[in-house]
Each structure stands twice: as C-alpha cells, then as structure tokens.
Specification:
Layout lengths: L6 H25 L5 H27 L6 H19 L6 H27 L4 H20 L2 E5 L2 E5 L13 E5 L4 E2 L7 H19 L2 H11 L1 H6 L4 H24 L4 E2 L3 H4 L1 H14 L4 H17 L7 H17 L1 H10 L1 H9 L1 E4 L2 E4 H11 L1
Antiparallel strand pairs: 1-2, 1-3, 4-5, 6-7
C-alpha cells in the first residue's frame, strides 16, 4: 500500500506523522513533568514560529519572491484577533467559540491585507519587492504604535493622538493604548491548538504545491516568460500564493496574541528583525522544504534558551552555529562530503546498493539486467 503511493504523497505523509508524533511525545513529557518550565512555556511560541516558517516558505520557496515584511501580516492577524476578543469578552459568547472566531478574523484580516498589498507589490521583482514589503511591515508596526481605540456605551472611539482624544464617557474602556498595545487578552492558546493550526497549514501548503495551481505557481517562479507563453495568468497565481501566505501568517499572529498577556507592536516582536529571523528559518531549513523550515524554526528558537549558561557568549555561540549550519547545508564542499560519506552512502555500501541522487539502485541487479539484455 505504501509503495503504491507517489513519492510526493509519501513525503507529505511523513511530514504529517512527524508533527503528530512530536505532539504526542511532548505531551507525554509535559504531563510526566519531564519538561522544564522554560520549555513548557515556549511550546505555543514554537508552534507560532513553525507556522510562520511554513507561511514564508510559500512565498520565498514556492513563489520565488523575497518578502521582508512577513512579520507585518503576523502583526495584523494578532491585533485584529485580540481586538475582537476584547470587544466580545464581556458578552455571553462561549469562550471557545470566541477564540475560534478570533482566529478566523485574524486569518481573514491578514488575507485581505495580503491581497491589497500584493496587487501593486507583486508587479515588482527582486530587491524592489523586498524593499517594498519591508516598508509595509514597518508601516503596519508604526500604525499599531500610534493607534488608540476605546469602547463605551455610545460605541467605539478611535484616535491617533492619545487616550484623552478618544472622548469616551465614564464607562469607557481603552482597548488599544498606543505603544502599550492591548493588555489583558485571555490566554486561550494551547499547544494542542498550535499543533492543529500547524498541521492544517502544512496540509494546505503541501496540497497546494502538489496541485495544478501549485505547478503553475512554480512554473512562474522558474520562468515567468515561459509561463506566460503557455497561457498562465501570472498575476492571478502570484496573488493567490501571496494571499494564502499572508492568511497563514495571520493565523500565527492570532495564536501569538492569545498566548501573551501584553500585545505590543515593538521592533522585537513585529519589526524588521523578526522578518529576518523568519527568513533565516526558511533558508536554513531549505528553501521550498516545508519540513526543514519547521525543524529549523524549532531548533533556532530553542537554541538561545539552551545556551543561557554561556551568559555573554550566548549569542556569539548562536551566530557560530548558524554559520556552520548554513555552510553544511549550502557549501559545495559540504554537499560533496555528505554525498560521499553520508548515511545513505554508508548504508548503500553495506547493502551493495549504488546511490544516485536520493534514490538507491541495487548495483548487482542492474548488472544482471545488463547481462540479460546483452
């Protein structure tokens, strides 16, 4: 049964099983008290970063466009979902239903922003696209920093000056307080929900890649002129991929907003550095490799915390590990070494198989076939 499946289906199934097994193992360790408080508190954050790696990999790896403002979509999803929760927290709506709608609102809002930004931005190429997406991320972050929003019996009040300019009554409550952001959002995000969203994101992206639409998107990435010559609507497919990528980032933002008690649009959370960190996840895990991006996101997020014993030298060691990992993945000499002394090569030597690329061919069997043909 397994051998009858296509190679792509088998790889996707392994990825799904890896996510499920990881959740089961971590849940067992957590319930048994074998995880430290630090790692337990980072589980949801790891899911958020893994989802962002999948989202950005769709834009960079599959679509072939460099985006440096992906943290902006995460910011949009986080603030829109947290705002909905704050506006409805005093109603009789069930908490779980409210959380579900908050995630949906974060996804839809980020998708709308992705569609609107994508229309003019995706006409650009290369460095110009990267600069414009970077500007978009910074604009979103700064707008959230100057936004004041409150609610009273007469409705919702918005200002970009200060809380006094809202003009609310005595029963007014400030929800978005400029640079202080949104506070007191219920912490409803759990490790289970994070893994479910990650799994759904992987299913959507991997099925998109293996579909007719995905092949059209990758053909645009490989050769835009050739894709246009066979009748592929370049603008349509690029916009579709960019919008889906933004929607997944919005889901990650909604999850993040409901995992922190204070949501602020600072540079450390939604700025340029965060977008660069997501790009590092994608490049280190392999451009276009969804499974590798998820693994890189987890390892690179946990590594600085594991290295806290090094104190001042922690980030130096982290930088050295990044450089070595990048060289191991992309340097021609390292690739040659892996092909010559890798695990597959060793196993092939022991079993009498010859390795060609990623597939193993039995050398003795191929020799027999040649003899029979002769």
């Amino acid at each position: 049964m397994w051998k009858k499946l296509s190679k792509g289906t088998r790889k996707n199934t392994v990825t799904y099983l890896l996510v499920i097994v990881t959740y089961l193992v971590m849940s067992i360790l957590q319930s048994g008290g074998h995880l430290s408080n630090l790692i337990s508190g980072m589980l949801v954050l790891l899911c958020v970063y893994a989802i962002m790696a999948v989202s950005l990999n769709l834009t960079v790896g599959v679509l072939g466009e460099l985006s440096l403002g992906h943290a902006g979509f995460m910011c949009v999803g986080a603030f829109s979902s947290a705002l909905f929760t704050q506006l409805t927290v005093s109603t009789e709506m069930n908490a779980n239903v409210r959380f579900f709608f908050a995630i949906v609102i974060g996804i839809v809002t980020a998708a709308v922003f992705g569609f609107m930004i994508g229309i003019p931005v995706l006409r650009l190429k290369g460095d110009y696209l990267a600069i414009v997406t970077l500007a978009f991320g910074e604009i979103i972050k700064n707008l959230c920093n100057v936004l004041f929003l409150g609610k009273d019996s007469s409705g919702i009040h918005v200002s970009m000056k200060d809380t006094m300019s809202l003009g609310m009554g005595a029963d007014g409550v400030v929800i978005i307080n400029g640079p202080q952001g949104i506070t007191r959002t219920p912490k409803q995000a759990t490790f289970l929900i994070g893994m479910l969203i990650l799994l759904i994101s992987l299913i959507i992206v991997l099925n998109l890649i293996n579909s007719r639409t995905g092949r059209a998107i990758m053909s645009i990435r490989d050769n835009r002129i050739a894709a246009e010559s066979v009748g592929i609507n370049v603008t349509k497919y690029k916009l579709l991929a960019f919008t889906v990528s933004a929607a997944i980032a919005g889901a990650a933002g909604a999850l993040y907003a409901h995992n922190t008690s204070s949501l602020m649009a600072t540079s450390a959370k939604f700025g340029y550095n965060m977008s660069i960190m997501f790009l590092v996840f994608v490049v280190l895990g392999g451009i276009g490799n969804m499974r590798g991006g998820v693994i890189a996101a987890v390892l690179l997020t946990v590594l600085p915390e594991v290295l806290r014993f090094a104190e001042d030298k922690r980030m130096l060691i982290y930088a050295i590990v990044l450089i070595l990992a990048m060289l191991w993945n992309w340097a021609p000499a390292a690739r040659t070494f892996r092909e010559k002394y890798g695990i597959r090569r060793i196993l092939a030597a022991r079993t009498g198989r010859k390795v060609i690329g990623s597939e193993g061919i039995n050398a003795s069997e191929s020799g027999k076939q040649k003899e029979e043909e002769m």
